[in-house]
Each structure stands twice: as structure tokens, then as C-alpha cells.
From TrEMBL:
Gene Ontology CC: one annotated term: membrane
UniProt similarity note: Belongs to the ABC transporter superfamily. ABCC family. Conjugate transporter (TC 3.A.1.208) subfamily.
Spans traversing the lipid bilayer: 28-47, 59-78, 84-101, 122-143, 293-321
InterPro entries documented for this protein: ABC1_TM_sf, ABC_transporter_C-like, ABCC8/9
GO molecular function: ATP binding; ATPase-coupled transmembrane transporter activity; sulfonylurea receptor activity
Classification of source organism: Eukaryota, Metazoa, Chordata, Craniata, Vertebrata
Single biological process term from Gene Ontology: potassium ion transport
Signal peptide coordinates: none
Keywords associated with the record: ATP-binding, Glycoprotein, Membrane, Nucleotide-binding, Repeat, Transmembrane, Transmembrane helix
Record's protein name: ABCC8 protein
Organism: Acrocephalus arundinaceus
Amino acid sequence: LLGWGSQSSKVHIHHSTWLHFPGHNLRWILTFILLFVLVCEIAEGIVSDGVSESRHLHLYMPAGMAFLAAITSVVYYHNIETSNFPKLLIALLFYWTLAFITKTIKFVKFCDNGVGFSQLRFCLTGLLVVLYGMLLAVEINVIRVRRYVFFKTPKEVKPPEDLQDLGVRFLQPFVNLLSKGTYWWMNTFIKTAHKKPIDLKTIGKLPIAMRALTNYIHLNEAFEAQKNKRSTSPQGSRSIWRALCCAFGRPLLLSSTFRILADLLGFAGPLCISGIVHNVGKGNNTIRPQTKILGVFFISSQEFLSNAYVLAVLLFFALLLQRTFLQASYYVAIETGINLRGAI
């Protein structure tokens, strides 16, 4: 497989980074959501099994294996993208197809046996069907755009100019979504700065998208577009504001969205702590579900969230996600401010 895939690697770049395949960010977001849903499915199986008279490993072991498979798919995709071997994505195409089919069969089986939305396991299975279907669609889109299989002439991709320039060491636009969110790509620079004093040569050149000339041209085009819409030349500060919003409005809107999401997740902490205190105060945290189908108990969302351990895990994920969104909001706002000042 490695030998077959290496034949498609026609792009040679100097940096130890990669060229993003189509749907790169969407794939990472869907995979993160998939991992979270699988964690919920594992927890739901353990909680359901805890109230049963006998052990039922099938309630959580398949979900645990699917969780490991999802992590493996991320590592596998990362290495394929780094090496630019799109032909090796065929393995993921088969996996998403099989996962989608098997989860759909399970979902249909639940429907046939009268399991509905009131049971959490039914909702989680439906979510997994949607997620696996979307990941399969992303994989098919890579085939369609890159034309790396089933096509006689695969699409050749030219690496960005920044990746061909050894002087550019600011690689944030070219790393994957996880590295962007954790700033992992800066580790090499931080280690270098720790060993010896840094200078301008160590920092390197700015990427083309962040240079003052590039942003000036971008802002000037937005200003000229306003001028062409009117019979007279735009005057006053209002026109400047409109040009700035047109040229730099999208990243500012993205920063605001990240901040809103972070603020909304801030409510999760007090709610989870309140639920934990309430359940611990009751003394008896044992769930007594009433629904039993196919020989096992099916718990509802309310019964699932009445478990203090579940709330503690949700609290951890909520706080982790809140800080990630907050830092992303700060980063995008600061980077946009630098570009805006350079343009002016």
C-alpha cells in the first residue's frame, strides 16, 4: 500500500508540514464530534450495564472499539496528508462505508423493536449514523476533487508559495485543526528560543497573507469597489469603516462567534456543579430505569444526566472546550488587528 500510494506523491516541499485535502477542517470537526458521541455511548452502556442483573459487554465494548478506530483514523489521515498519499484514503473510504451501514442496521433494528427518542441509546445511534454518513461524504468529495482514483488523470496540486520558501517559519495557516487549537506547531520555535537567544533570522519572514503590502491591496480593492458603486468618490470616515468591514469582516465575525460559543459554554460549569451537588446530596445515586427492551435496560437522557460521574466528565469537556474557543477568539482578533494596521 505504501509503495502504491507513494507513486501519487508528486509534490515536494521543504517544510515538515502538509497540503490540506478538500474538506480538511470539516473532517476534523466531524471527528471531534464523533469522539464525543462515542464517549457518551460508552458511558451510557456502562451506566445501563450497572443497573442490570447480569453483565452485558455488548453495551459498551463496541463503542470502545469504535472510539479507538476513530482515533486511529485521525492518526492515519494525518500521516497520509503529511506525505500527500491520497490513494491510501481508500482504506478510510471502506471503513466509513462499513461503519455507516452497520450503524444504520442497528438504528433500523431499534425502530422495529419500538425504541424511540425517549431512550438515549436511540438518539446516540441516530447521531452516529449521521456522522458516519457525513464523513463518508467528505471522503467521496476528496476523490471527486483530487481525482486520485477511478480517474485517468489525477489532479496535480501546487504547494503554496509560503511552503516553498524556507524563510517562512510561521506555519499556522498550513497545520491541521488540532495543531491550530493547541498551538502545537510553535513547539519547535519555543524549544529554539529556550536554548539560545532568538533573532529576526530565527523568527523568519511573514507569510504572504500577513504582509502589509498584501493587506493594503486587499483593503484598497474593497475601497475601490465602493467607489465604483457610487457616482461620486466616497468621502468621510463612514466609507473607511465600510471598506475595513468588507476587507476584514469575516475574521472578526469568526472571532466573535468563537467568543459567543465560549461564553455559552461558561454556563455548563455552574449547571454541572449544581447537578453534582444535587445528586450527591440525595445520598442514593442509583438509577432505576423502567424501560427494558431486548433483555437490557434503556435509560433516558434525564436518567443519564442524573449520574454524578457523567456530569463530572461533561464538566471537564465543557471547560476544555470553553478555553479553546476563548483562546481561538483572542488569536483571530489579534491577527486581524495586525493585518488591519498593516493595511492602513
